């Protein structure tokens, strides 16, 4: 049976889920989105994702025609309609239909709201056991002076350019630096290093304030592992004992190679594996119940 997608107030089969070619989400990438996971019949960190969606929308002066509570309920309904047990949910809010000019005032009907609930293809399991090979992209993450990278917008070309570079280099991911040369994030994941039993990640001013990132910082604190937010450079990665990426889809992905240099002993590190376990335990035991 076909999955059901929520489009502007209705659940319709995937093959009928359509928006107009005049939607400014398509014409200009004018919109925002989220990526959410469900584990074990519960939506993980639902409130945080809905909050970030609304913050991103506010940042681009886009009005979502729902309250945060309503939106959370719609996400749960989308999961129920698709019998989600473990899954991936993609809410998208665009500026809506307009004309061929970019002026958002022309989008008089208002936002398009789409919710897709399905599954996600992760990196193959072997990648988590062996670790990921990453290259540093020549593309710098868009600076906050140009467009805040903390907005989860439909404009991912900056990261896609980096991803293409990684693909050409046969790497699993690209690391992006900020405009000043400090580490920013991976193309769709935050970046961490572990040094002297301290976990470190850059401040979120140059990247997306990842919900997995925050979960890792919280888990570290809860378990008495030192965790800091600080700017760091490639030098600190070369000198690190371990490195890993975090994201809703990727979860905790060990990084063992950056630009051909081995990180630590070239295997997923002990601290990384510990954090993976804490994360899996939390993701599988908490969240908003989908079914009653
Ligand atoms: N950075 C970017 C650019 C992303 O797209 C994502 C994935 N949404 C992340 C980081 C990780 O964020 P989260 O942990 O909230 O999925």
Detailed description of the structure:
This protein is an alpha+beta fold and 292 residues long. The chain has two domains: 4-118, 2-Layer Sandwich (D-amino Acid Aminotransferase, Chain A, domain 1), CATH 3.30.470; 125-283, D-amino Acid Aminotransferase, subunit A, domain 2 (D-amino Acid Aminotransferase, Chain A, domain 2, Alpha-Beta Barrel). Helices cover 28% and strands 27% of the residues. The strands form two sheets. Strands 8, 9, 10, 11, 12, 13, 14, 15 and 16 form a nine-stranded mixed sheet that branches. The longest helix is centred in the first third of the chain and has 14 residues, at 46-59. The two termini are 23 Å apart. The model has no long low-confidence stretch (mean pLDDT 97).
């Amino acid at each position: 049976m076909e999955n059901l997608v929520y489009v502007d107030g209705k659940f319709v089969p995937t093959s009928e889920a359509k928006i107009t070619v005049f939607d400014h989400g398509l014409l200009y990438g004018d919109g925002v989105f989220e990526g959410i996971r469900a584990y074990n019949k519960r939506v993980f960190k639902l409130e945080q994702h809905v909050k970030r969606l609304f913050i991103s929308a506010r940042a681009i002066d886009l009005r979502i025609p729902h309250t945060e509570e309503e939106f959370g309920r719609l996400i749960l309904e989308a999961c129920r309609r698709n019998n989600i047990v473990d899954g991936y949910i993609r809410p998208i809010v665009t500026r809506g239909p307009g004309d061929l000019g970019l002026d958002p005032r022309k989008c008089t009907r208002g936002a398009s709201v789409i919710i897709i609930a399905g599954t996600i293809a992760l990196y193959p399991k072997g990648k988590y056991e062996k670790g990921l090979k990453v290259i540093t992209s020549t593309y710098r993450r868009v600076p906050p002076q140009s467009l805040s990278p903390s907005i989860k917008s439909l404009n991912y070309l900056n990261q896609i350019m980096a991803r293409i570079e990684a693909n050409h280099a046969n790497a699993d991911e690209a690391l992006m630096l900020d405009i000043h040369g400090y580490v920013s994030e991976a193309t769709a994941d935050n970046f961490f290093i572990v040094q002297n039993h301290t976990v470190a990640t850059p401040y979120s001013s140059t990247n997306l304030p990842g919900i997995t990132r925050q979960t890792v910082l919280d888990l570290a604190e809860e378990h008495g592992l030192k965790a800091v937010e600080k700017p760091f450079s490639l030098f600190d990665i070369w000198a690190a004992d371990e490195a890993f990426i975090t994201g809703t889809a990727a979860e905790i992905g060990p990084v063992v190679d950056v630009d051909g240099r081995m990180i630590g002993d070239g295997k997923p590190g002990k601290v990384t594996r510990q954090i993976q376990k804490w994360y899996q335990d939390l993701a599988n035991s908490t969240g908003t119940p989908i079914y009653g």
